[in-house]
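Ticket #4471: structure output looks truncated?

Reporter: J.K.
Steps to reproduce: submitted the chain below (194 residues) through the standard prediction queue, then opened the result file.
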Amino acid sequence: MGNSPSKTLEMKKKVQLFGAGSKELVKFLDKKLEDAQSGSVWFWLQGIYKVEQYLNEDGTLDEITMQGEFNEEIDIVKEWIKEWKEETVKKDNITYTDVYGYEHTTTRKYSKFPYDMSECKFLDHEDIDLDVRNPFSGESHKLSPVEEAVYRKVIKAQLESPNYFLDPDAQKIVRKGCDWFRANNAEAYMKLLD
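Returned output as attached by the reporter:
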């Protein structure tokens, strides 16, 4: 059951209206849908062929249109859109003060620093990579001082909390740091934190 040419044109116009990231959002949603349909027990997702027809001009989900056909799927697609937005968070340079009192601004762009910067120690200036070793696996990876500060905060929360698995504050620190690493240096995350 295909769309009429006018409906397809209308969908393309709608997708073009909500900005430069629209193609990436549509690709992301199509991939999520494909993954859900291919290896899933979510049989009710089989009826959705393209998610873009259910998007509003601003990239949000048109729940009214979707509700008539796929009521249960609305929450899933909304979560996918939220996930995409979190992954495409604006990145910017970070300015920090190292342990010697010198201020540095990174040349690399990062998402917002996950902690209060006054609670972290930055060991050096940005053009020096620091060799960091995972205390659990023994693997090492070079990190910028900003990345190393986040990593140290995560490891400290894991090692210094007497009952880490029962400590929601320590878990929150670790989760924030891991999320930040996944968004900013996935390779280091896989070697040092995964």
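Triage note (M.O.): checked the attachment and the full token line is present. Strands lie at 95-97, 103-105, 130-133, 140-143.
Status: closed, working as intended.
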